[in-house]
Structures are given as C-alpha cells and as structure tokens.
Amino acid sequence: MMPELGKYAGAVLSSYGVSLLLLAGLVAVSVWRSRRTARALREVEERVRNG
Amino acid sequence: MIALFIRDVRLAVRAGGGFGLGLAFFLIVVVLVPFALGPETALLSRIAPGVLWIGALLACLLSLDRIFALDFEDGTLDLIATSPLPLEGVCAAKALAHWVTTGLPLVVAAPVLGVLLSLPAAGYPWLVVSLLVGTPALSVIGTFGAALTVGIKRGGLLLSLLVLPLYVPTLIFGAEVARAGAGDLAVETPLVLLAAVTCVTIALLPFASAAVLRMNLR
Amino acid sequence: MASIWEYANPKKFTATAERLLPVLAVLAVVALATGLIWGFFFTPDDYRQGSTVKIIYLHVPSALMAINTWLMMLAASLIWLIRRHHVSALAARAAAPVGAVMTVIALLTGAIWGQPMWGTWWAWDPRLTSFLILFLFYLGYIALWSAIENDDTAADLTSVLCIVGSVFALLSRYAVNFWNQGLHQGASLSLDKEKNVADVFYHPLLLCIAGFVLLFVALVLLRTVTEIRARRTRALLARERMA
Question: What sections of the protein cross the membrane (chain B) (predicted)?
Fold first, then answer.
C-alpha cells in the first residue's frame, strides 16, 4: 500500500508529519478554548439568572 | 507646532532625555561587530555599510518609546490633544523632533564609525546620503509604533516587534544604496526607491499615528 | 435572502455558525483527507523532483491561505473601522493565529522541500523572505491584540495596524524582489493552462486547496464564536462586580 518514495522518503514524510501535527494542534487548541469559554459563559449566565 | 517641536528637542537634549544614549548605543554596536567577526579588514569593509545601517536602525529604535510615553504619563498628551492643534501636526512635529535628536546625530556619526569598519572611501558620501534620506522614514514609522503602544505598560518590547517589520523596505533600499556606493556601483535606482518610501511614509503615516493616538486617548 | 449585515448581530452569528460548523468541519475533513490521500498514494512522481512533488499538496494550499488570511483580516478590519460591527473585529482576531500557523506550515514544508531540491533549507529568496516577513507581521498583530486590555481599543488599534501592515507587507514584497533574485519557481497555479502544473497533480491539489479553505472557514467561525463568548463572559463578570 505504501508508495515507493525513494531517497526522498524522509523529506516527504516529515513535511506531512509536521504539517498535520501543526494543523491538529491548531484545531485542538481552538476546540479546547471554545469548550472552555462556552462553559465559563454558561456558568456566569446561570449565576446572573439565579443570583 | 513649532513650540511643541522646540520643547521636544529641548527635553530630549537635556540630561536623562536619551539624546546621547542612541549615539552611544550606535558606537557600541559598531565596536562589537569586529569582536564577533574578527578584525580582518577586507571582510569588515565589505559588511561595513550593512552594519552601519543596522546599527543606526537599532539606535533609532531605542528612543522610540520616549516619543509619547512621558507625555502620556504626566497628562501632557491629553492637554495637547484637546488643544486646537491638529493631532496629525502634533505627530509630525514629534516625529521631526525625534529625527533631529536621533536620526541627524546618527547621520553625522556614521562616517566616523565607518572609519572603524574600514569602509571604502567611495562609500562615505553615499552612506551619509542614504542615512539622510532613510532615517526620517525610521522616525515617522517609529512614531506610528509609539502611538500604537502608548497606553501599554512595558510596551518597549512590543514596540520593537511591531516596528521592525515596518522598517524592512527602508533597510533594504538604504543598505543597498550604501553597499552599491561603497562598491562603486550605480546607486540611482535604490536611492530613488528609498526616497519614495520616505516621502510616502512622511505623507501618510502621521494621519495613521494621529488616528491611533485618538483611539488610545479615548 | 437576508442581508449579510444581519450576521453583525453576535447572537444571530453564533446561531448560524453553530449550525454551519459541523457541516463545514465534515466537508473540510473529507476534502482534505481525499485530497491528501489521493495526492500521497495515487499520483506519480515527478520526473525531475521525484517523490518530493507530493509536498506540493501541503505547501501550496498553506501558502495560499497564509496570504488570504491576511486579506480576510484586512477586510474585517476595514468593516470594523467603517461600520463598527464587533463580530467583524473578533473575526479578524480569530483568524490571525490560523494565518500564522498556515505561514509556518508553508515555511516548514518549503524548507523541507528545498533541502533536497536546492541543497539548502533556507535561501534568502524573495518569496521565502516575504513569507518570513509576513510571519513577523502576524506575530506583531497577535501580540498587540493580547497586550491591550480594553476590547474596543484593541480592535481599533489592531485594525489600523493591519491596514498599515498590509501596505508595508506589499512594499516589502517589492523591496525584497529588488534585493535578490530567487531560486523559487514562479506561481504553480495560473489560469493559463500552459504554465499550470500537470493535470495529475492539479486535481488532487485543487481538492487540497478546497480542504484548506473549508478548514480555515470552520476554524475562524469556531474561534470567532469563542471570542464572542469570551467577550460576553467578561462583560457579565464586569457587571457583576459593579452590582
């Protein structure tokens, strides 16, 4: 299944690895921050409504 | 406006105003370069124009945060902003004062420091010309950066981060003029482009600085 | 069809964004996965560049997005300065880190590609240098946003910085061109068929570009919603403290 990359295998694989890692990191940070702020907002809104 | 300009120049020249600081910094940078690269004359004379430009640029950067910070802290800036003076004119006057107290001394000092780096004889006039044409742009761009960061405590580092990328065109053309001049090559094209960059920044950036200052003072 | 300005209302924007997000995310993943797998496994090697040509599927889309993100930030900044829609300013803020990451990806894949092809990781080539300068602009922009406490002032100042920065980025591009002739080839994509890359590479590349664009839109929507919520939280907390 793996294509023959020849002598440039390291270059190709590392560039894919680095890029996907960076993209995944960006997505992960964005999602994590989104969840956290959503939770924080919910908490504050509830407190405002009840308090 | 003229009064403001004179006041700024006076404040800068007075002790503690940082007038000599930029020059001393320039001198130290130029002295440190041979320590890092070795005393070989041929190498030094080849890189001299670039080193002098970088030194001038960093020395210019050093005094930028003084342009507005002190006036902002003691409230003078609010007074100036509410005075009938247009804020654009204030920014232009401040930039001019910065240039007179920082850029002009650097231009005068550069040939002297060129001797230390054994700059080729043909390079001196073009080095002075390139700095003379280029440093006003550095002051005007720096004023914009200072206006952006005026409300921020410890904004000095941020100021450098914001301003240095904006210095790229000036540095490229200015160093090119000095380098071409030192190598007896044609200097017209980079010199004209350098002058163009300077003219455009002087014409437009005071408006941006004033706009930014208004936002900061609001 | 509702006017686009309706989305200047944060509530409406959030609702629509939340509805769109899953769709966009799925589409982005599908397009990216298909494009990358197609490109990686099912395209031939270039006769000169060997297998390194596969890097194109990451390098070109990320480079495109690096520039387009800045343009989007410029547009959003102008909208903020002219029409004072908070969502616009927050969208610009949300896009900046995405653009910075895209620039890093373009630079890194470029370096990894350049090593076997040009024999060097880095050359002071105009294109490479302009991208490095663009990255510095992103850094400055993000730093300024995070340094200012008042949200509206920060939005104003960064907008002006974005506009001035655009002018200087363009200027730097030409200055750098003048300063050094480069190793980098011309544009890989153009409407002129003759100059374009061969079709075998072109179709998966288009798919990858579509994937990057979708991913960008999804990320910006998500991050903008995050910024809106964070802002609302701050406002509520401030009101609580006042009471």
Answer: 12-37, 43-64, 96-117, 123-150, 157-178, 190-213
State CA B18 to chain mean position distance.
Answer: 14
What is the C-alpha separation between C90 and C10, in angstroms, rounded? 10
What is the residue range of C160's domain? Answer: 21-181+193-242
Q: Where do the structural domains in chain A lie, given as residue ranges?
A: 24-51
Q: Is C186 a domain residue?
A: no
Number of domains in chain B: 1
Residue found by looking up tokens 């993943």 in the block: C29
pTM of the model: 0.88
* Buried-state track C216-233, b at ≥16 Cβ within 10 A, e below 16: bbbbbbbbbbbbbbbbbb
Q: Which residue has the higher pLDDT, C95 or B117?
A: C95
> SS3 for C50?
strand
Residues of B whose CB is below 8 A from C153: 151, 215-216, 218
pLDDT at res. C93: 93
For residue A6, the tally of other CB atoms under 10 A from its CB is 11
pLDDT at B3 over 70: yes
Predicted confidence (pLDDT) at residue B86 exceeds the cutoff of 50: yes
Using CB atoms and an 8 Å cut-off, which of residues 134-153 of chain C contact chain A? none
A18: nearest CB among C52, C108, C219: C108
Query: C95 and chain A: CB distance < 8 Å anywhere?
Result: no
What is the 8-class DSSP label of residue B64? T
Min mean pLDDT across C79-83, C115-119, C161-165 is at C115-119
Q: Averaged over B48-75, what is the pLDDT?
A: 87
Instruction: Establish if C4 belongs to a structural domain.
Output: no
Domain region containing B24: 2-217
Q: What tokens appear for B99 in the block?
A: 């240039």
Q: How confident is the model at residue C137 (pLDDT cuts 50, 70, 90)?
A: very high
- Specify whether the CB–CB gap between B58 and B28 falls below 8 A: no
* Whether the Cβ atoms of residue B163 and residue B145 lie closer than 8 Å to each other: yes
ipTM above 0.90, yes or no: no
Q: Given a cut of 50, is residue C1 above it in pLDDT?
A: no
Residue C242 has pLDDT above 90, yes or no: no
Number of domains observed in the structure of chain C: 1
Cα–Cα distance measured from residue B101 to residue B98, given in angstroms and rounded to the nearest whole number: 5
**Residue C138 placed within a domain:** yes
CA angle B46, B49, B55 (to 5 degrees): 125
Q: What is the pLDDT of residue B63?
A: 84
Distance from the Cα of C142 to chain B's closest Cα (Å) equals 10
